[in-house]
Amino acid sequence: MKRHIEGILWAVSFLSLIVAAMTSNRASLVFIAIVWVVYTVMVIPLHFVRAWRRWREVPNKWHYAAWVGFETVAAMALIGVFVYLVSSR
């Protein structure tokens, strides 16, 4: 179970978005939004911590570090843009 926790967290995060798209009840949308935020906030750091810990084990360290570094910068930029757009309204 511990090995699959990241996949379960991703699944709950994405499924909550699908459920939110199919519901129209305001109270349900608030609950689903809270679930989405909580699970997303848990899974994104978990993903990057596990990815950087795997760096020692991969045979092609330079390419792996470049790719995970790109993923990390892109995720941080996306989160920054999201926070900016939410806070600017």
Structure description:
- This protein is mostly helical and 89 residues long.
- It has two domains: 1-42; 55-89.
- The chain has three helices and no strands.
- It has helices spanning 5-22, 26-54, 61-87.
- Helix 1 (5-22) packs antiparallel against helix 2 (26-54).
Low-confidence stretches: none
Percentage of residues in strands? under 5%
- Give the assembly state of these chains: single chain
- Number of alpha- plus pi-helical segments: 3
- The rounded Rg comes to 16 Å
Give helix % range: over 70%
Basic shape: flat
Q: Write the H/E string, N to C.
A: HHH
Supply the helix-strand structural class.
mainly alpha
| Domain unit count | 2
Biggest sheet statistics: none
Topology:
Layout: H1 5-22, H2 26-54, H3 61-87
Summarize, please.
With 89 residues, the chain is mainly alpha-helical.
List keywords for this structure.
89 residues
